[in-house]
Amino acid sequence: MIAVVIPCYRVRKQILGVLAGIGPECDAIYVVDDACPDQTGALVEEECRDPRVRVLYGERNRGVGGATLEGYRAALAEGARILVKLDGDGQMDPALIPRLVRPLEQGEADYAKGNRFFDLRGLDPMPRIRLLGNSLLSFATKLSSGYWNLFDPTNGFTALHAAVARELPFDKLAPGYFFESDLLFRLGTLRAAVCDVPMPARYGDEPSSLVIRRVIGPFAGRHLVNTLKRLFYNYYLRDFNIASIQLVLGILFTAFGTTWGLRQWAAGSAAGVVSSSGTVMLAALPVLIGVQLILAFLTYDLQNVPRTPLHRRLAASDA
Any alpha helices (H) in 61-127, and if so which ranges? Predict the structure, then answer.
């Protein structure tokens, strides 16, 4: 059973067209009205005749993540096998759902997400501010999740295997715009296999509720926290290997060389004395060693991306 979850907030103009485009491969559709002031849920109940559609109402606005999780819970309770998340603003083509769920059906991944950056020719419609922001967020998400093979982390066109969804701590996932990035971090802690699925970028006249200047600070802070958590979980709590040592020594050597070198430079400048070559080398050598160790750790981390689907391991353990 493939279930589609559509969180709705101010998408009254687009929602009926989105629903009409969902093909017969989907067995259930959950429209989650996230306390929408435009009463999107009521419109769907009045105008949509698709028997697969069920409207859920939130008592208060919880954000895209909170609305999506409510749809996930309902779909899981009714036996869904794959959970597709589709935005209601028309920026995602429902006709691509079969392509999105294929890696899960073939046992190649636990979670698939759209990637609008695969075909560079299709990026012309994307606003340049979104293009820049997405590039920066992609790098931050690679650090915080450990999925160095992914791009376009805020893409909300996703498919999640139900067996893996049941392993996720829904109560800990970010309810707002950070939902997709936080979900990748949580999937990383489970060592779930994640893949990108190419999709075109589509933009119309729909308004965006995401204000870049308001989220850049909170996003940076959350990515930093998730990065530290990931490194601790993967390299010091669950495992301890050569990369664990490389990271600690790399940070210590770099910090020592930088700090000591700056102090010697400041003292020499105040006294009007030029630092000797030995002093310069004593500062530079630890920095060079530290950078090499950090690069060695990053090389290991790049190769440590989860490849084996978790839902297959779960099925084998239950057999």
Answer: 63-77, 97-105
pTM passes above 0.70: yes
Q: What residues contact 130, with CB distance under 8 A and at least 6 apart? A: none
Q: Which fold has domain 2-235?
A: Spore Coat Polysaccharide Biosynthesis Protein SpsA; Chain A (3.90.550)
Annotated domain spans of the chain:
2-235, 240-318
Residue 69 has φ and ψ, to the nearest 5°, of -65, -35
Beta strands in the chain (DSSP E): 2-8, 28-33, 53-57, 82-85, 111-115, 158-161, 194-198
How many residues can be counted in the chain? 319
Q: Quote the CA–CA distance of 17 and 24 in Å, as a whole number.
A: 15
What strands, in cross-sheet order, belong to the sheet with 82-85? Answer: 53-57, 28-33, 2-8, 82-85, 158-161, 111-115, 194-198
CB 128 within 8 A of CB 55: no
Q: Tell me the pLDDT band of 287, cut-offs 50, 70 and 90.
A: very high
Q: What is the helix (H) or strand (E) element at residue 286, kind and residue range?
A: helix 277-302
Q: Which of 33-42, 100-109, 171-180, 208-217 comes out lowest in average pLDDT? A: 208-217
Q: Residue 213's CB: how many other CB atoms inside 10 A? A: 6
**Range 145-172 average pLDDT:** 93
Residue type present at position 139 = F
- Report the pLDDT averaged over residues 169-191: 93
